Amino acid sequence: MLALIFVLAVAARSGFGAEKLLLAGVGLGAMVSSILTAIIATGSPQALVLLGWLSGTGTQSAPMQLWMAGFALVVGFTILLALSRWLDILPLGSVTMRSLGLSLILPRLVIVLIAALLTAIASMMVGPLSFVGLIAPHLTRNFGLHTPKRFLTSSMLIGVVMMVSADWLARIVTFPYNLPLGLFASLLGGTCFLVLLSRRTSL
């Protein structure tokens, strides 16, 4: 929550533009990463738990957490589908939004808040596996699915397939060892990303 408030405060003067949000997130991420590294360097039991969470794990989630995450996903996804008109217009730029009578700030703020909430819940449960969130939309776009409803649905399903595949690899391929889920998620995501880069000049 504090991270979200910080990023929104930095990006507020630009009307929550994508560039300011991205740069504020990168800067805050670097600061938090240095703090986490210092905590892990202490070697305390809490540091080991933190290291496991940073590596990604799906074994520490209670059934109630899964139900809460599922409920949040359904609510957030439904709201985003209802805002598909905003998602259609936002990429066209601020000039087009003004000409259509849309506010510049409200659509951006609402979508950022929903994305932040869903990201926070996912990160709390399995760790900061951001690479899956990066590559799933690119794969969806590579399949030619550009309308908001198809794009959101396909991105979610591709992310699910990647996470389930990573979990299967972590549990089965390395048996009897149970390596962190995040290692295999990054392996699958990185492989897909490199394949996309080799096939296209731009993403």
Automatic annotation (TrEMBL):
UniProt-annotated location(s): Cell membrane
Sorted UniProt keywords: Cell membrane, Membrane, Transmembrane, Transmembrane helix, Transport
Membrane disposition: Multi-pass membrane protein
InterPro entries referenced in this protein's UniProt entry, alphabetically: ABC_BtuC-like, ABC_transptr_permease_BtuC
TM annotation in the entry: 27-54, 66-86, 106-139, 151-173, 179-197
Superkingdom of origin: Bacteria
Pfam families for the chain: FecCD
GO process terms (BP): siderophore-iron import into cell
Any GO MF annotation of the entry: transmembrane transporter activity
Entry-linked SUPFAM superfamilies: ABC transporter involved in vitamin B12 uptake, BtuC (SSF81345)
GO CC annotations on file: plasma membrane
Family named by the database record: Belongs to the binding-protein-dependent transport system permease family. FecCD subfamily.
PANTHER family, alphabetized: FE(3+) DICITRATE TRANSPORT SYSTEM PERMEASE PROTEIN FECD-RELATED, FERRIC ENTEROBACTIN TRANSPORT SYSTEM PERMEASE PROTEIN
Protein name: Uncharacterized protein
UniProt organism field: Brucella intermedia 229E
UniProt lineage: Bacteria, Pseudomonadati, Pseudomonadota, Alphaproteobacteria, Hyphomicrobiales
